[in-house]
UniProtKB/TrEMBL annotation:
It comes from the Bacteria. Pfam families: SASP (PF00269). Residues 13-26 have a biased composition (Basic and acidic residues). This is Spore protein.
Length: 75
């Protein structure tokens, strides 16, 4: 295997590793969204009707709170 071929192979391998990490992350984010929905008192609506049933205003609140928490975690 030539040097540039090996480098390309290693880059592809890293991409697969990153994708595997992303698969784990949605569960964590989904848990956080459910926690926030519970705090906002809309957990029953989410469980019964789904996320699509929320108004844009409430969805924005959830997204904002989620973003703040993720920033705190990453610091």
């Amino acid at each position: 295997m030539l040097k540039h071929e090996r480098k390309h192979h290693q880059e592809k391998h890293r991409q697969y590793e990153k994708k595997d990490n992303r698969k784990k992350r949605p569960d964590f984010i989904e848990e956080m969204k459910m926690e926030i929905a519970s705090e906002l008192g809309i957990i029953q609506q989410v469980q019964n009707e789904g996320w699509d049933s929320l108004s844009p205003r409430i969805s924005g609140k959830i997204g904002g709170k989620l973003s703040q928490r993720l920033k705190r975690i990453n610091k």
